[in-house]
Amino acid sequence: MINDEFFDARKQPLYQMDSALLGQLQELKTRIHSACVKHINQPARVQTVHGQIYEGYIVHIDATHLYLKPMPGHVRGFYGPYVGYGAYENVILPLVLYELLVISLLS
Length: 107
Description:
The chain is an alpha+beta fold. It has 1 helix and 5 strands. The protein is elongated.
C-alpha cells in the first residue's frame, strides 16, 4: 500500500536529481546497453568508477544492470564453514550501468 504522507507535495525532498543530469544518465545507459548487447556470452573486463575490476562473461544486460559471470578464480565472497568446493561457480554479478567506467573485450 502506498503511503500518502510520502507523496505530500508540501514536504521538501531531501534530494532531487537535476533533470539535465537525468537525461545524461539515461543517454549513458542507452549507449552502454547498445555496446554490450552485441557481446553477450563474450569475456570482458569491467572497471567501475570506484576502481573495482571484474573479469567475466557478459551474460545479460537490461535497462539498469550489466550481468557478469566471473571467470574461474575471480569470485570474491564470504566462504562459510559449510560451503563445499565449487559452491561459488554459479555467481552472477549485477553491475549498475551508470557506475561502469571501462568495458573491454578479452577475446
